Amino acid sequence: MANEKKVQSVAIIGLGYVGLPLAMRCAEKDYETYGLDLDKQKVDMIKRGESPFKEKFIEERKASLKKIKASTDPAILKHADIVVVCVPTPVDEKFFPILTPLSSAMELIVKNHKAGQLIMIESTINPGICDEILMPILVQAGLKEGADFFLGHCPERINPGDIKWNVSNIPRVLGASSPKGLEMAKKFYESIIDAPIKLMGSIKEAEACKVVENSFRDINIAFVNELAKSFDKLEIDIKNVIDGAATKPFAFMAHYPGRGVGGHCIPVDPYYLIERAKESGFDHKFLRTAREINNSMPNYTVEAMQDLLNEIKLPMKDTTIGVMGLSYKANVDDLRESPAIKIISELKKKKAKIIRYDPFIKKMSDVPDLKTFLKKCTAIILVTNHSEFATLDPKEFKKNNIKAIVDGMNCLEKEKIKKLGIKYHGIGRK
Asked: Which of 130, 154, 265, 377 is an active site residue?
């Protein structure tokens, strides 16, 4: 029919925790959906209808995987009316943002450009990147903004493992380089997301939103982590205090301490703002302090184990310590910035014998199951509050002659463990 609406095409660059669910959602909403990733193994899995990682949203919608035209060939971008960039933006050892994956993605778009393309950036970036780094790549290639392309930013808000919030129902913010681009972006996101879309005054404002969101969380987690260290000295149970404070119905938001902050956002995003502001002559002392506190927690967790072993006159050297959980959060297989990496490194420095177990990351586990893990350990550091661990009967620790436990996520039954004669130390709760 002459008046039939033309099906738009979307290409997602980067098929990871952000890009793959987004591509699936686009396919569900009847967009012709392309997926570009440099990892051939990942692309082949998606073609077979298999997910390269565990995620509830994906498992429930596996039929959508085969609807994605996944490829390692950048030429697929030529077919797309809309290109969404979902590549990682990590930091280096000095905490400077690494923009190479993002700039490389933009170069691929330039080489495989389609006239009038809407280019959306979902990768987390500090304020100014779109205007100062990405726009020049397009313009210097001879492309005219507002005619050949439209550039926008919609910071991702994926929360791996969350059973309620996913790419389909989390509210989003949008910024774009022109009013027309903003309207195009709004139309696209409203077609795939069943949640409010807030339009920002500029791309820079949209960029700032994500950094502020995660810096807010980092600061509040740092606050309770510092309280945990203090309350250890004062012999006050931090978890009970926070639960008590949370009964106030206004002006308090509960955050809980732990063995350190992990994941692709909170340990990284504050540095984007810290370093960008430094270039403009401002020092984010508060953000830097929060990062220092949270970065100290893996060491603090190992020190807590050292204290427990001292109490029972066991040396750290040659004592078999089990690292219970490797991923950065419960019930996912995501290792990015996981505190487990630093905790294991510290244990190695102290020459402990280490046994690792994570039911979601079997390839890095030293034993096949939890039963074997418990049998081999003398002491345990719980790093990840996987459901299998949090629901474990404390009697299992006693049955396997576990002598000391550091509960890095305060998820175990403290009083029951102590009554069994096992040395226990949570984060801020002895």
From this structure: 265
Helix (H/G/I), strand (E/B), else coil: 13: strand
Q: Do 379 and 404 contact (CB within 8 A), yes or no?
A: yes
* Total domains, the chain: 2
Q: What is the per-residue pLDDT across 207-219, written as a single tens digit (0 to 9) for each? A: 999 999 999 999 9
Q: H or E segment at 140?
A: helix 135-140
Q: What is the CATH classification number for the domain harbouring 136?
A: 3.40.50.720
Known catalytic residue at 26:
no
What is the SS3 assignment for 375? helix
pLDDT tens readout for residues 380-416: 999 999 999 999 999 999 999 999 999 999 999 999 9
If we measure between CA atoms, which residue out of 177, 57, 165 comes closest to residue 117?
177
Domain residues for 367?
Answer: 287-426
Burial of 100 (0-12, 13-18, 19+ CB in 10 A): exposed
> Which domain-ending residue is among 135, 166, 201?
201
Residue 399 within any structural domain of the chain: yes
On whether both 47 and 183 belong to a single domain, the answer is yes
Selection from 311, 261, 305, 267 nearest residue 287 by Cα: 267
